[in-house]
Amino acid sequence: xxxxxxxxxxxxxxxxxxxxxxxxxxxxxxxxxxxxxxxxxxxxxxxxxxxxxxxxxxxxxxxxxxxxxxxxxxxxxxxxxxxxxxxxxxxxxxxxxxxxxxxxxxxxxxxxxxxxxxxxxxxxxxxxxxxxxxxxxxxxxxxxxxxxxxxxxxxxxxxxxxxxxxxxxxxxxxxxxxxxxxxxxxxxxxxxxxxxxxxxxxxxxxxxxxxxxxxxxxxxxxxxxxxxxxxxxxxxxxxxxxxxxxxxxxxxxxxxxxxxxxxxxxxxxxxxxxxxxxxxxxxxxxxxxxxxxxxxxxxxxxxxxxxxxxxxxxxxxxxxxxxxxxxxxxxxxxxxxxxx
Length: 340
Description:
Blueprint: H1 4-11, H2 19-42, H3 45-70, H4 77-91, H5 104-107, H6 129-159, H7 161-167, H8 191-212, H9 218-240, H10 255-260, E1 264-265, H11 269-275, H12 283-288, H13 297-307, E2 318-319, H14 321-330
Helix pairs in contact: 2-3, 2-4, 3-4, 3-9, 6-7, 6-8, 6-9
């Protein structure tokens, strides 16, 4: 049983986005990230390791706000103000401005979800443990490497645009999982987005200058890079159980199939929040109603579970983290539903 009208009606009370929660959450997370990074870079072994752990978890949480930002309404000044500050404090310094993730919206489109046109979907069901490990690290190192290469080439590409099309073929302009995805340019960059790309490019050259001149040692640079990469590895592991990866057959699917291919991670709230922060553990609900703000996802989920009748398809998309990991290796039995 699938009833989109009921889902919208039951979740409507939770649609309001409270930007005060966004600001408090992000700024607190950013403070923990900065403190953890400082300990990691300056303290002795025991405290340094503690700083690394807290720094990685806080960086992961800060980075996860990118997912919310992509779904912001560009016409709302409060949301755009948050986007600007997030980019200035976090996105631009790690060379990942939020514009690089705008392609995420195509992941929600029924005609591209689970196909080669989906930037965030690859056929990883039934892969070996080594294959899953390859996916996680490829998910981290591949897109970031391509983005860095693109930024290095940006000065030339801006002068000779054809060079970018010839050398990169659109690669490095979006943070993606699916390497077959070709950026469509559906999400046009704003003036701030262009500024963020320019600022990130200048910063990359600045970082290289600090290394070449010896102003920053290779050890310090490696420690900073390790902290950022580990936070991205966590996101790569989380991505393993964001979906069931059963629809990768090149065919478009309907909204019900998009829902049944997605997973809510239920169970322990604390560990679930660490593993999939900023609402990412309710990924199936997010696909069901993508306009719900992250701070209301749990309330909306509880309402749906309480009010929906037995046999509703929404009840089949919930799993604990261990269950989702086991099922990823064992394979799922849900039958994909074609578009109608």
